[in-house]
Amino acid sequence: MNIFVCIKQVPDTTTRIKLRGDGNGIDEADIQWIISPHDELAIEEALRLREQEPESIITVLSAGPERVTDSLRMALAMGVDSAVQVDLPGDADSAMNARALAAAIGRLGQADIIFTGKEAVDDGAAAVGPMLAVFLGLPCVTVVNGIDYGDGAITCRRDVGGGNIEVIETPLPAVVAAQVGLNEPRYATALNIIKAKKKPIDTLSADELGITEADRKMRLKNFELPPPKQPCRLIEGATAEQANELIRVLAEEIQAI
């Protein structure tokens, strides 16, 4: 099988975000970049599928500037076969990223299955996977936390809330967006991380793929950090006094009731 995985590099969730002076983006200085956690699930699922289909080849792609090669090398260390950087600006929107990834996959060969994460943890747009499917003319199943592989088709399970499970069968090729619960991603060993540093990473430019600024449909500006959290307030006294004071605070000060 020809397996593709599309990943996004995002700031580490422990990073303290600072804004640029013009307020039109984040200050990338001193940011630790990682593979978006849902995309790690996508990588792991591709690796498990290759274990079932040993002749399979896994290619991982990431759209972004040169820094995304660090995340691509981590994917190589996890065990994928090859990696491709799709050279785009770091502020490219979902439409531009999806269009470029679709064009790149079209150049690299016929896909049997494409894995993505459900969403990236930086913007939470959950848009690239479905857009990618539209551009490639493929079916797409999102928020997947279980897959059974058949002959030329897959059966996906989705937790749709309230204890309900949705089961969707679709022919291959298809785009599958991974959700938490699909698997447990493996750790890259120190030896494999060292080996991955020596592996080549191919680059496809926007010009090669026919991607222009016209493919960008949205531009973000006027970023604002959330207001600081208010300090915790302790209510002293007996249980009844605490309850009465809590009701007063909610009603009079916070006006929540």
List keywords for this structure.
Rossmann fold, 7 helices, 257 residues, globular, 7-stranded parallel β-sheet, 3-stranded antiparallel β-sheet, 2 domains, single chain, alpha/beta
> Remind me, CATH topology of the largest domain?
Rossmann fold
Question: Which runs of at least 5 residues are low in confidence (pLDDT < 50)?
Answer: none
Euclidean distance between termini CA atoms: 58 Å
Can you identify the CATH class of the largest domain?
Answer: Alpha Beta
Folded structure, characterized:
- The protein has 257 residues and is α/β, with parallel strands linked by helices.
- The chain folds into two domains: 214 residues, 3-Layer(aba) Sandwich (Rossmann fold); 31 residues, no CATH class.
- The protein has seven helices and twelve strands.
- Helix 2 crosses helix 5 and helix 3 packs across helix 4.
- The radius of gyration is 22 Å and the shape is globular.
Describe what is shown at a glance.
By secondary structure, this protein is of the alpha/beta class. It is built from 7 helices and 12 strands.
